[in-house]
């Protein structure tokens, strides 16, 4: 494994939750596996007035709670904490950037980090246009002596127009190669495994096209509500929050052509090609291809739960969708005519992200004595989380007289690989950025193409008051009408359970 070059990780928004829960614990996990360079420091920036000592004490608590490798060696933990520094700084104030430059120079000299800096924008998105510009004004984006990389957290824009504007702004001050747009889904082992499942097995790829696949289903379900994020979520909704980025990324990985090489350019080219091939849904067609819903108050396991409109920070007459389902097509050679059904929602019965490839049935139903089996096509379920794994469903003969067919499961669970350590998404992605590998980060053109696809849906939902926001009781699988997206009578969504191999109404959620 290559070791990253010496550098400083500069975190804007270091007093926030992301730094505490995800970033500093993930870097600690890297440290624990000796994956950090010899000379390394973290510089946290935030408006809160903290000393290095305060910052370290706060981060120590975050590491103890959230690192995957729980720190059992106090010395090791303290050595790591020594690498953490804090600088109180007003991100909005252009005059303070020359102070930041001075601080970075001083730290760089003291730590021997060779003028290599990674800037992580863990701030609200309204800072994205200020930080790059001010860094550039101080020549802090200049790579003539040392690399300068910029990590941008989602949301990358609010719609197509703002995404284009953001990309344009970023590109004024940093090159595309310096920009790392992070999507934690790409950091998930099981998402990366999609590439391996598809392209390292001779058995799947020949079937992976319109000749053998009937339809594809992708679910990103959560069993929690918006919690204390109501204020943010009101301006976002399921389409922006989950579908534009995470679920379309899964569509990209399922549908892409084999890349020539596993590298940043080739993989990202193929994903972008899928996004460019998404059949546009016109504003006037939105009601036919997209369903939106919002959870209402209900009882789950005997306990009363709030509806979305009662959540903190949410308007009493809110029309923000907490559930969205879309039927889409990819207009290219491989996928012509194959519908992709994607759905995501909050307050659904269970937390599960999975892809189901539904294969076409046999051309002639020889064992037609049991209609339900004939109609139950072969399915390949790729489970992203939880109970990560892969499941193949197929028909087998029931022992005994005649030819009765039963659907059976063949399943692989990651948990069976007892010695394999599954790194967290942030751990993997931060390491890649440190190594200068942007394969698992979004490229600007692909982000824009994804916005281009969702934009007419957003517009129609905003402007056309006749498109209903369907209520669904918290704890159910979203509005009943989402079943109507899948028109054919004998096909429904899969209703997955906590365990990969189970589905349907009667299982543990
Ligand atoms: C985030 C969304 O990007 O992804 C959240 O903003 C959502 O609303 C989260 O809960 C889901 O991530 P995961 O990894 O739990 O599927």
Quickly count the helices: 15
Instruction: Tell me, briefly, the overall form.
Output: globular
Mean pLDDT across residues: 92
From the N-terminal CA to the C-terminal CA, the straight-line distance is: 39 Å
Radius of gyration: 24 Å
> Could you say what the CATH topology of the largest domain is called?
Dihydrodipicolinate Reductase, domain 2
Indicate the CATH architecture of the largest domain.
2-Layer Sandwich
Structure in words:
With 509 residues, this protein is an alpha/beta fold. It has two domains: 7-153, 3-Layer(aba) Sandwich (Rossmann fold); 186-485, 2-Layer Sandwich (Dihydrodipicolinate Reductase, domain 2), CATH 3.30.360. Helices cover 33% and strands 20% of the residues. The protein has helices at residues 17-32, 52-66, 74-81, 97-111, 130-137, 160-173, 189-199, 230-234, 237-255, 264-277, 286-289, 371-374, 425-435, 444-463, 482-485; strands spanning 7-12, 40-46, 84-88, 117-121, 148-152, 179-181, 213-221, 290-296, 298-300, 303-305, 323-328, 340-345, 352-359, 379-385, 389-397, 405-413, 470-473. The strands form three sheets. The protein has a nine-stranded mixed beta sheet. It is globular and about 80 Å long.
């Amino acid at each position: 494994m290559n070791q990253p070059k010496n550098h400083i990780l500069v975190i804007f928004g270091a007093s926030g939750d992301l730094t505490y829960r995800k970033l500093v614990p993930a870097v600690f996990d890297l440290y624990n596996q000796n994956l950090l360079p010899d000379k390394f420091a973290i510089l946290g920036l935030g408006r809160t007035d903290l000393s290095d000592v305060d910052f370290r004490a706060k981060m120590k608590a975050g590491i103890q709670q959230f690192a995957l490798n729980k720190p059992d060696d106090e010395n090791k933990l303290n050595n790591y904490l020594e690498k953490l520094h804090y600088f109180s700084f007003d991100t909005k104030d252009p005059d303070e950037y020359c102070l930041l430059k001075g601080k970075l120079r001083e730290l760089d000299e003291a730590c021997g980090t060779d003028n290599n800096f990674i800037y992580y924008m863990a701030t609200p998105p309204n800072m994205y246009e200020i930080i790059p510009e001010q860094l550039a004004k101080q020549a802090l984006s200049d790579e003539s002596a040392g690399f300068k990389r910029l990590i941008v957290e989602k949301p990358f824009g609010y719609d197509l127009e703002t995404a284009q504007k953001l990309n344009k702004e970023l590109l004024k001050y940093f090159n595309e190669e310096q920009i790392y747009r992070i999507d934690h889904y790409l950091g998930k082992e099981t998402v990366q495994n999609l590439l391996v499942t598809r392209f390292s097995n001779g058995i799947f790829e020949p079937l992976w096209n319109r000749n053998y696949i009937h339809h594809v289903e992708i679910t990103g379900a959560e069993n929690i509500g918006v919690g204390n994020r109501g204020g943010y979520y009101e301006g976002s909704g399921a389409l922006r929050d989950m579908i534009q980025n995470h679920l379309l990324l899964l569509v990209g990985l399922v549908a892409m052509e084999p890349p020539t090489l596993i590298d940043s350019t080739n993989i990202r080219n193929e994903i972008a090609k899928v996004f460019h091939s998404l059949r546009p849904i016109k504003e006037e067609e939105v009601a036919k291809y997209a369903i939106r819903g919002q959870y209402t108050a209900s009882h789950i396991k005997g306990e009363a739960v709030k509806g979305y409109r009662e959540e903190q920070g949410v308007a009493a007459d809110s029309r923000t969708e907490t559930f969205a389902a879309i039927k889409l097509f990819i207009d290219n050679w491989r996928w012509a005519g194959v519908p992709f059904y994607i759905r995501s929602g909050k307050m659904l019965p269970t937390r599960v992200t999975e892809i189901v490839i539904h294969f076409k049935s046999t051309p002639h139903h020889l064992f037609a004595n049991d209609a339900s089996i004939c109609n139950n096509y072969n399915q390949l379920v790729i489970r992203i989380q939880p109970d990560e794994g892969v499941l193949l469903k197929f028909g087998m003969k029931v022992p005994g007289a005649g030819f009765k067919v039963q659907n059976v499961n063949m399943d692989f669970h990651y948990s069976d690989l007892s010695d394999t350590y599954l790194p967290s998404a942030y751990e993997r992605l931060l390491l890649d950025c440190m190594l200068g590998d942007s394969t698992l980060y979004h490229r600007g053109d692909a982000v824009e193409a994804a916005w281009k696809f969702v934009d007419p849906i957003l517009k129609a939902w905003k402007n056309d008051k006749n498109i209903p926001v369907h209520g669904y009781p918290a704890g159910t699988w979203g509005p009943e009408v989402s079943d109507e997206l899948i028109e054919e009578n004998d096909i429904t969504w899969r209703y997955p359970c906590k365990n990969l191999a189970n589905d349907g109404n009667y299982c543990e959620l």
